[in-house]
């Protein structure tokens, strides 16, 4: 910064029901001052305005950095509005699951996350988009940073008790997860990968993700990277009988640090490890693992979908695509250890 020039400043878009505003303000002011930045702009989320409006207010005020302070819903909406702006985006995670922060290696500790927002490294990451139609024919679109889909994850979101969620955090998801695991109904899904032929089959659960670690640290998309330009897809046929055994065995391997998958062709002991696509193919048809840029699906009967932990209602048809490198994220130098970024 040259003498007489105006110092840069950040804008914080925050969920007023989530953050301890006085404490976060104190931490942000201290970090901004230490970095030589000017006074921060504070923009609360509001029911009658959208993230697009809030980001426009931040950028219109000349912000050189936009920070989302809230849960995964706030982060998802602000990030979606920040696509292709080329202005850095940072996260102060104060939600229940904080899935994007955990996948991206962003500290959950508020003070550490604030420091990383001002001092971290900038990385371009992908953003997923789901364009969907509900049973009434209404067309909608929403971004996601972590994953979208139906089945166990959407059941978890749809049936979690909001009071328990506020009081006990992710523990509120335990009963809905169990309910989803033992659900017997399986809609018929037809899908088309990157414009290829149409395939179909009964499907219990479908994850489509930009990264793959969900609540309680379970890794369901072991090859997914935030910056590889593709989406990873896991389709589970059933969790009953031998299918349940095969899926459990596959997930155990995905979450076993000794026998992990390759995450993009990495090696162990000089040998290339098999990818999740390859190992899923040996699971007796119990699951499919795809890596795609676009997938078109129809679901009959319609199923409840979610995007980054927010329910989006029943969906009868959807197109899920990746927007490669659409978002510049400020991450701590240690973020590469998360395993969700290319070296």
Automatic annotation (TrEMBL):
One Gene Ontology CC term in the entry: cytosol
Keyword annotations from UniProtKB, A to Z = Kinase, Transferase
Q: Which domain of life is it from?
A: Bacteria
Tell me any Pfam family this protein matches.
YegS_C
Question: Signal sequence: where?
Answer: none
Q: Which GO terms describe its molecular function?
A: kinase activity; methylglyoxal synthase activity
Q: Which InterPro entries match?
A: ATP-NAD_kinase_N, Diacylglycerol_kinase_cat_dom, Methylgl_synth, NAD/diacylglycerol_kinase_sf, YegS/DAGK_C
| Domain (DAGKc) ranges | 5-134
Which biological process terms from the Gene Ontology are attached to this UniProt entry? Answer: methylglyoxal biosynthetic process
Q: What is this protein called?
A: Diacylglycerol kinase family enzyme
């Amino acid at each position: 910064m040259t003498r007489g020039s105006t110092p840069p400043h950040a804008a914080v878009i925050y969920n007023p029901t989530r953050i301890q505003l006085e404490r976060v303000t104190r931490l942000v002011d201290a970090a901004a001052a230490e970095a030589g930045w000017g006074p921060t702009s504070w923009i609360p989320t509001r029911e009658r305005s959208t993230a697009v409006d809030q980001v426009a207010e931040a950028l219109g005020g000349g912000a050189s950095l936009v920070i989302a302070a809230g849960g995964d819903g706030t982060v998802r909406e602000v990030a979606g509005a920040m696509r292709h702006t080329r202005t850095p985006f940072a996260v102060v995670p104060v939600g229940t699951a904080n899935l994007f922060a955990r996948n991206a290696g962003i500290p959950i500790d508020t003070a550490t996350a604030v420091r990383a927002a001002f001092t971290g490294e900038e990385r371009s990451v992908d953003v997923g988009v789901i364009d969907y139609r509900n049973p009434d024919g209404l067309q909608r679109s929403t971004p996601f940073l972590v994953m979208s889909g139906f089945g166990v994850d959407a059941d978890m979101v749809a049936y979690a008790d909001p009071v328990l969620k506020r009081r006990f955090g992710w523990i509120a998801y335990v009963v809905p997860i169990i309910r989803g695991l033992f659900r017997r109904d399986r809609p018929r899904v037809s899908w088309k990968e990157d414009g290829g032929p149409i395939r179909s089959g009964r499907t219990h659960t479908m994850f489509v993700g930009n990264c793959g670690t969900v609540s309680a640290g379970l890794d369901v998309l072991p090859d997914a990277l935030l910056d590889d330009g593709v989406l990873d897809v896991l389709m589970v046929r059933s969790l009953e009988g031998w299918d349940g055994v095969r899926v459990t065995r596959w997930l155990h391997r995905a979450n076993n640090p000794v026998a992990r998958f390759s995450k993009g062709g990495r090696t162990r002991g000089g040998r290339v490890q098999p990818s999740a696509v390859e190992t899923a193919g040996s699971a007796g048809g119990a699951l499919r693992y795809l890596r795609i840029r676009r997938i078109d699906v129809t679901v009959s009967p319609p199923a409840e979908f979610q995007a980054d932990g927010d329910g989006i209602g029943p969906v009868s048809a959807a197109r899920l695509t990746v927007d490669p490198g659409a978002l510049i994220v400020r991450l701590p130098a240690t973020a590469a250890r998360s395993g969700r970024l290319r070296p």
